[in-house]
Design a protein that fits this description.
Elements (H helix, E strand, L loop, with lengths): L3 H23 L9 H11 L3 H4 L1 H22 L17 H15 L6 H15 L2 H10 L1 E2 L1 H28 L4 H27 L3 E2 L3
Helix pairs in contact: 1-4, 1-8, 2-4, 2-6, 5-6, 6-9, 8-9
Membrane topology: Multi-pass membrane protein
Subcellular location: Endoplasmic reticulum membrane
InterPro entries: ER_ret_rcpt (IPR000133)
């Protein structure tokens, strides 16, 4: 089934990965949560069932994983980018809230108790929660540079289009995956406050400043 909203979402997802590449190579200042990048690699590897069935999905997953690994390399090891990484601001307790929270949600909301299905559910909830440390860091900074706001904005819009794609699929087939849908809704809600200020900054043509 051709689902145009899914392809729009995939394109925006790819754009969100390319923006940090441009940011880190054009301007070596990193106001980005380093720990969010390994989570992206984990969730992309966790959803490996699609690697078996679709060349399109295989190509996109490999592109996402390689892009994430490259960003980790820039932020952690490549000078001068690693020198500007603000580890003091990147202090969110990831293991306590993100990894554990995703595991608990996967046990509560899942399609099946089979190990593979639980792993897939875990990846959905991990992706839903993974943006929290980035938003936490941006709230501390308050004044967000344009390229960082574009990065998070692209992530928020891509999740919105994924929800639209699920609704579109349901309208045609009657099938719905509640784990994916609920995870997408939670993630979109987490982005909502940021997207509000992001849209205001686009309309005003000024830099983005988060509210208190």
């Amino acid at each position: 089934m051709f689902n145009p909203f899914r392809y729009i979402a995939d394109f925006l997802h790819l754009v969100s990965f390319l923006i940090p590449h441009f940011k880190n190579t054009a301007k070596p200042e990193i106001a980005q949560d380093y720990h969010s990048e390994p989570k992206k690699s984990i969730l992309q590897c966790s959803v490996s069932d699609t690697l078996i069935y679709s060349l399109y999905n295989t190509s996109m997953k490999l592109l996402y994983i390689s892009s994430t690994v490259f960003i980790i390399y820039l932020m952690k090891f490549k000078k001068p980018y690693c020198l500007s990484y603000d580890s003091a601001s990147d202090d969110f307790p990831h293991y306590k809230f993100i990894y554990t929270g995703a595991a608990v949600l996967a046990l509560l909301v899942h399609t099946d108790l089979a190990p593979f299905e639980l792993g897939w559910s875990y990846s959905i909830w991990l992706e839903a929660l993974a943006i929290i440390p980035q938003l936490h860091m941006l709230q501390k900074i308050k004044d967000v540079e344009n390229i960082t706001s574009n990065y998070v904005g692209a992530l928020g819009v891509y999740r919105f289009f994924y929800i639209v794609s699920w609704i579109y699929k349901y309208s045609l087939t009657g099938d719905v995956c509640w784990t994916s849908l609920l995870g997408g809704i939670v993630q979109t809600i987490l982005y909502a406050d940021f997207l509000y200020y992001y849209i205001i900054s686009l309309k005003s043509g000024k830099g983005m400043s988060l509210g208190v």
